[in-house]
C-alpha cells in the first residue's frame, strides 16, 4: 500500500498522527482532510473495518465519492478503540492500484496493529496521569513537611511559654477564681501538647518507617507509669485510679514511648468512664514478658467501632466534652508494634480493657 496513516477521527476533524507516504499523496503529520470526504467518518459511526480490494469492482464503493476524490483503488481501514471503549480513529491505507486485502493475514495484521496502537495510547495516557499524580503527591509532601515544622517549632514554643506561665501563676497568692483560671490554662496546654505530640508522631510515622524507639535494658517503668498517673491526677483530681503493679524483672523498652502509650490509654479511660467509677491499672513484668492493662467501666464499644479503633482519625461515640483528633490509639498501637508487641482491646457492657503485651526475645 502506497500510503498508510494513523488518523485521529473526531466528530469534526480527520487529522494525521503518523504517516508513511510512498506515492506522494502529500499529507504530512498534522495534516487534515475534510471529515465528510473520508470513509473513516463512516467507520467512526459504525466502528467496523472497511476493506476494498478493487474499488471499480466493489458493489458498495464503486460509486463512492471518496475513492473518486482521492484516486485510490484499494483501501483498508480498521478502527482504533481505546481501553475505555472510546473511538480514537483509524489505521488506514490506500493505493492507486488494486490489492488482495480481503484475507485473514492482512486484516488480522491491521487489527493487531490497531490494538497495539490503542494499547500504546492508553499507556501514554496512564503515564501522563501517573506523572500528574506524582507531582501532586510531591506538592503534598512539601506541604506536609512544612506542616510538621510548624507543629514542631512555631506551635510548641509558645505553648511551652503558656504552660510555664500557668505554673508560675499557680504558685502566686491568687484568689479562688484566679486559681481556677490558672488551672484551666495549665490543663489546656497539657492537652494541646498531647495533641501536637500525636500529630508529630503520626506524620513522622507515615513519612518514615513507623515510630522510632530507643530501648533501655533496665527501664524503670514503674516510676514512669506513676509519673503519668500523677500528671493525670492533677487534671482529674477527683478520679480514683487504682494501681496494681508487680515488677519482678527489668523491662527492655523505650520508657518514654511506653509512658506516652500509657498516657493515651489512661486519658481515654478517664474520658470515657463515669466520674464516680475507678480506673484500674494492672502491670507486671517477668523474665519473659511485660503486660499492662488499663480497665474502666462505661459503655460497651460498638462492634463497628472496634474494627477501626486503632486506625488513624477513628473515634468512638464522642460526648460534647471529649475532644481530640482520633490519633491516640493509633499511635499507641504503633508504639506497641515498634516494641514487637501487641495492643488489644476487649469491651463488654461491664468494662473495657486495653491490654499491652510485649514478649521478650529469647
From TrEMBL:
Keywords: Kinase, Phosphoprotein, Transferase, Two-component regulatory system
Tree of life domain: Bacteria
Cross-referenced Pfam families: GAF, HATPase_c, HisKA
Catalytic activity: ATP + protein L-histidine = ADP + protein N-phospho-L-histidine
Domain Histidine kinase: 150-362
CDD domains, alphabetized: HisKA (cd00082)
GO molecular function, one term: phosphorelay sensor kinase activity
EC numbers: 2.7.13.3
Protein name as catalogued: histidine kinase
Source species taxonomy: Bacteria, Pseudomonadati, Bacteroidota, Sphingobacteriia, Sphingobacteriales
Amino acid at each position: 500500500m502506497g500510503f498508510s496513516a494513523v488518523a485521529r477521527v473526531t466528530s469534526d476533524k480527520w487529522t494525521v498522527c503518523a504517516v508513511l507516504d510512498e506515492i506522494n499523496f502529500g499529507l504530512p503529520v498534522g495534516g487534515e482532510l475534510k471529515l465528510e470526504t473520508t470513509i473513516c467518518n463512516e467507520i467512526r459511526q459504525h466502528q467496523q473495518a472497511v476493506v476494498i480490494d478493487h474499488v471499480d469492482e466493489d458493489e458498495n464503493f464503486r460509486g463512492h465519492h471518496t475513492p473518486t476524490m482521492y484516486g485510490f483503488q484499494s483501501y483498508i481501514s480498521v478502527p482504533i478503540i481505546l481501553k475505555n471503549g472510546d473511538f480514537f480513529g483509524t489505521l488506514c491505507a490506500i493505493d492507486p492500484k488494486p490489492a488482495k486485502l480481503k484475507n485473514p493475514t492482512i486484516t488480522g495484521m491491521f487489527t493487531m496493529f490497531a490494538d497495539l496502537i490503542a494499547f500504546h495510547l492508553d499507556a501514554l495516557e496512564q503515564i501522563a496521569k501517573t506523572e500528574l499524580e506524582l507531582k501532586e503527591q510531591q506538592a503534598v509532601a512539601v506541604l506536609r513537611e512544612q506542616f510538621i515544622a510548624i507543629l514542631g517549632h512555631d506551635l510548641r514554643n509558645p505553648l511551652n511559654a503558656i504552660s510555664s506561665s500557668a505554673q508560675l501563676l499557680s504558685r502566686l497568692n491568687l484568689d479562688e477564681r484566679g486559681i481556677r483560671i490558672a488551672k484551666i490554662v495549665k490543663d489546656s496546654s497539657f492537652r494541646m501538647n498531647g495533641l501536637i505530640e500525636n500529630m508529630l508522631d503520626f506524620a513522622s510515622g507515615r513519612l518514615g518507617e513507623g515510630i522510632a524507639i530507643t530501648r533501655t535494658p533496665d527501664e524503670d517503668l514503674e516510676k514512669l507509669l506513676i509519673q503519668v498517673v500523677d500528671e493525670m491526677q492533677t487534671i482529674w483530681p477527683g478520679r480514683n485510679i487504682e494501681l496494681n503493679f508487680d515488677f519482678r524483672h527489668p523491662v527492655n523498652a523505650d520508657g518514654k514511648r511506653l509512658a506516652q502509650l500509657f498516657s493515651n490509654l489512661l486519658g481515654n479511660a478517664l474520658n470515657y468512664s463515669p466520674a464516680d467509677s475507678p480506673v484500674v491499672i494492672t502491670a507486671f513484668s517477668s523474665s519473659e514478658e511485660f503486660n499492662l492493662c488499663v480497665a474502666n467501666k462505661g459503655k460497651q464499644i460498638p462492634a463497628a467501632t472496634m474494627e477501626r479503633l486503632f486506625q488513624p482519625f477513628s473515634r468512638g461515640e464522642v460526648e460534647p466534652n471529649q475532644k481530640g483528633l482520633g490519633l491516640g490509639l493509633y499511635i499507641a498501637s504503633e508504639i506497641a508494634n515498634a516494641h514487637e508487641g501487641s495492643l488489644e482491646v476487649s469491651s463488654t457492657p461491664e468494662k473495657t480493657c486495653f491490654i499491652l503485651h510485649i514478649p521478650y526475645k529469647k
